[in-house]
Structure formats: C-alpha cells, structure tokens
Design a protein that fits this description.
Rossmann fold, 16 helices, globular
C-alpha cells in the first residue's frame, strides 16, 4: 500500500515527530510512505535520514488566526493553485490512500475527494480553541470536505469531542500518540534518579519543552518560579524556539522577576532526551493541548509532570496518581511545584504509575498497529460512515 502523508509544516516538533515515528513503523506492515511538505525545513532532513520519500509542494493552511483574517484570500488562492499539482503528484506516485496529519490543512482531503481515493484525517490539535483559527473558505465548506473523508483519528477523546462535528464522531477512533518503543521505555526508565537540589547536591530542575508561544504557558511558569522559596533552589530549563520578540519578552520578564539567573533558554534541541535527563520534573502549562507529546514522553521516562487541568493534558494525567494538575493559575502551579520538590515519596509514586500508564498507552508499537488498522479498513471500505468509533 502506498500512502501519501500530508504534513502542515516543516519543523520537527510534536505533530511531525509523531508522524516520523508512524511512517517508519508502518513500513513493517508493507506500507510505502511518501510525505508531502509545504516548505523546506528540518523535517525533510530527518525524513531523508530515515530513508522516507518526500515531496515538497506549495500548499498552505486552510485555517488562519482571526487576528490575521486578511491572510484568508491569499491562502485560498495558493491552495487553489496547488491543488492540481497535488492531484498530479498523487496520480504519478500511484497513491492508494491519502493521510492528512493535521486539522489545519485540507488540500490532501480535497485531492483525495477529486481522485476518489480513501482519506484518513488525523486530528492532533484544537486550533479554534488554542489559536482562535477559522476556516478560510468558511465552516460549511470545511464540513463538506470533512464529511467526504473515509475515517478520522483523534489523539484524545477531547479532540474527538471538540474537534469534529457530532455527526462525524462515529467515524473517529481515538489513538494516543506513541512516543517510544516498549523496549526503549523499559531500558530508559527511570531516566534520572529523582534526586534533587533539596538533598544538597544541586538545583531542582524543572523543564519545559516545545514551541515557545503564549498558548504554551512559559510566562506563567516564570511567574510561578518567582513565587517559590529561594531555599528550594529551583531552576527552569526552557527548550524550544519561538518568535524572537516573544522570547526576548520572556527573558526580560525573568530578569524583572529576579529569576534571570535561574532560567535557561536552550533553543531548539534535536535530542530532547538531554533536557529530560537533566530534569527532576516537567511543566506542561498549555491552556489548550490536543494530547501533549511532552506529557507522554515525560511519563514514559519516569519524570513527574505538573500539568494544567484542561483539555488533553487533564485526560492523560490522573491527579495525584500519574502526575499533578493545577488549576490554571501561577499560584497553584507554584503550590504543586513546592509539593513535588518537598515530597520525594510522592514523586517516586508518580514516576512508577506514570511509567506503567505509558507502557499501556504510549508505545510506538501500539500506536502504529492501531493506525494501520484504520488505514487498512479505510482502503477496503472507502465509503463515508462505514467505520465505527473505538477508543
């Protein structure tokens, strides 16, 4: 089976990291993957290294933030121009099934509809809630394109319920992202020994990983860190990239709060395990999260997670059992940080329970087998509405 996978950007963050894992593992089921990209970037380099075929075509998002509504006509024009080239590429590559890796692009689904190919849509985010995005061609048009798809996959129950019209949810299966193989999870756990600055051997390191933007909550983490007692010796490592102005704003805020010497901005790191290895705990402060790859990775590696009690993060964390949840305020985040730092027996319980959950839900083997099942069924029953929901 030849499957065309449509990515919505060319960076190497959560959605594309999950896609890279997936296309590599699907080869064991006889899949020949070809990944379509809208632009050049690190992802194509990693695909080449993994010996995965890729094509670059000039399509773009079919959603846009409301604060940039004037971009919508240009997006419609660009995608209209790209669609014939996409259809031609799918035909020339003898594609059997089209797979769209994000809610925010629609050109793959439109091309599949024109060519009468089965289409699977992997819903990974909540763009309306997270970024205030809307469909450039309008909701009615987007819903019609969605309705023509053969099947859907959602990264969480939250995404299925909030990201799809109710009439389409019966075609959607919930499949949590796979982040590590079972063997890797078992061999790497625990990634660190859980000892922190509170035993006199150094600082207690909290880590945040992923793109740097207001929705991810880095500012709130800085404000929480500033509220911690100085004697606890907590530091924060922030890994990832973002807009230059916003990163500079966060750096200024850290100095204004008097914690500039306790915050490190690490930039983009190709190997996030180095960040995890130095950490004693991980903060996930996103206001809206489809699932949260960082949450799942941390749990797999035995790192306690403090996450915001909302959307996909709250779905993954059982508060006080597999991690800690806070109510969305900096004050409550600081309270949970202190709790984690000063209660080592709690941290150890969280480590063990989170790792056990990851072995059940977040292995790459489970992930790829489940996705393959959806694709195989879609190929043999290319009729909208033919699949049933499962989680």
């Amino acid at each position: 089976m030849r499957i065309a996978f449509f990515a919505h950007y060319a960076g190497q963050y959560g959605a594309n990291q999950s896609l890279l894992t997936l296309v590599q593992d699907l080869r064991k089921f006889g899949v020949e993957p070809i990944v379509f990209l809208p632009e050049a970037g690190p992802f194509q380099v990693n695909l080449t290294q993994a010996q995965i075929a890729w094509r670059r075509l000039p399509y773009t998002l079919w959603m846009t933030p409301r604060r940039r509504f004037w971009h919508a006509p240009g997006q419609l024009w660009r995608n209209g121009r790209a669609l014939p080239r996409v259809e031609q590429a799918l035909s020339q590559d003898h594609i059997d099934l089209v797979y769209t890796n994000s809610t925010v692009i629609g050109v793959g689904a439109q091309a599949a509809q024109e060519l009468n190919l089965p289409h699977v849509w992997h819903l990974r985010e909540l763009p309306q809630a997270a970024f205030g995005m809307f469909y450039a061609a309008g909701w009615r048009h987007a819903r019609a394109v969605m309705a023509a798809s053969t099947a859907f996959i959602a990264v969480s129950r939250t995404v299925r319920s909030q990201g799809l019209p109710s009439a389409l949810q019966s075609r959607c299966r919930v499949i949590y992202n796979g982040v590590l193989s079972e063997a890797a999870m078992r061999s790497l756990y625990p990634l660190t020994d859980g000892k922190s600055g509170n035993d006199g051997r150094g600082s207690f390191v909290f880590a945040m990983l992923g793109s740097i933007n207001p929705n991810k909550g880095q500012e709130q983490a800085l404000r929480a860190l500033a509220q911690l007692p100085v004697q606890l010796n907590a530091v924060l490592h922030i890994a990832g990239t973002g807009g230059h102005r916003y990163v500079a704003r966060l750096e200024r805020l850290a100095h204004e709060l008097g914690i500039g010497d306790r915050v490190r901005f690490l930039g983009y790191l190709a190997e996030p395990q180095d960040v995890y290895r130095q950490a004693d705990g991980v903060l996930v402060c996103s206001a809206v999260e489809g699932m949260g790859r960082v949450t799942a990775e941390s749990m797999a590696l035995g790192l306690p997670v403090i996450g915001r009690d909302s959307t996909g993060t709250a779905e993954l964390i059982d508060d006080g059992v597999t991690g800690l949840l806070y109510d969305g305020t900096a004050a409550d985040l600081a309270r949970q940080m202190v709790r984690l730092m000063t209660t080592p027996e709690l941290a150890e319980r969280l480590r063990w329970a989170a790792h056990a959950q990851a072995l059940t839900h977040f292995t790459t083997e489970r992930y790829s087998a489940a996705v393959w099942g959806v694709c195989r069924t879609a190929l043999t029953s290319n009729q909208p509405g033919s699949q049933s929901s499962s989680s």
